[in-house]
Amino acid sequence: MPTSCERPSRDRKGAVLSLILSLALWPQSPKVEYEDITVSSGLGRFQHSAGDPLKPYLPETTGSGVALFDYDNDGWLDIYLVNAKGPAALFRNNKDGTFTDVTAKAGVENNRWGTGVCVGDFNNDGWEDLYVTNLGPNRLYRNDGNGAFTDVAEKAGVAATTWSTGCAFGDYNRDGLLDLYVAGYVDFDWRHPPPAGETSGGPAPAAPRASAEGGGRMGAAYDPNAPFCTFLGLRVACGPRGLKGAPDFLFRNNGDATFADVTRAAGVADSQGYYGFSVAWVDLDDDGWLDIVVANDSKPNYVYHNRRNGTFEEIGTLTGLATNAEGREQAYMGMAVGDYNHDGRNDFFFTTFSGDSYTLHRNNGNLDFTEVTEAAGLGAVTIPFLGWGTEFLDYDNDGWLDLVAANGHTYPQIDRLRTTTSYQQRTLLFRNLQNGRFADVGGSLGPGLTKPKSSRGAAVGDLFNDGDLDIVLNNLDSPPTLLRNHGGNRAGHWIGLRLIGDPSQKTPRDAIGTVVFCSASGFRQRGEVASGRSYLSQSDLRIHFGLGAAERVDKLEILWPNGSRETLTLPAVDRFLTLVQGKGLVSTEPRP
Amino acid sequence: MRPLRCGPGVLLWFCLVSFGQEPYRQALQQAEELRARGDLEGVVRVLLPWVEKDPNKAEAQQALGLAYFQRNDFVGAIRHLSIAWKLEPAHRQTVESLAMAYYFSNRSAEALPLLRQAVAKNPGDTYLGYALAMTYVYTHDWDAARRMLAQLFDVPPESPEALVLASDFLAREKFTAEAEKLLLQALQKRPDLPDIHYRLALIALTNGAQPEAVAQLKKQVAAHPAHPMAWHYLGYIYTRQGKLEEAIRCLQRSIWLNLRSTESYILIAEAYTQQGKHVEAEQALQRALELAPQSYEAHFLLARIYHKTNRPELAKKEMAIADKLRASEPRP
Question: Residue B79's closest chain A neighbor by CA?
Answer without folding.
Answer: A227
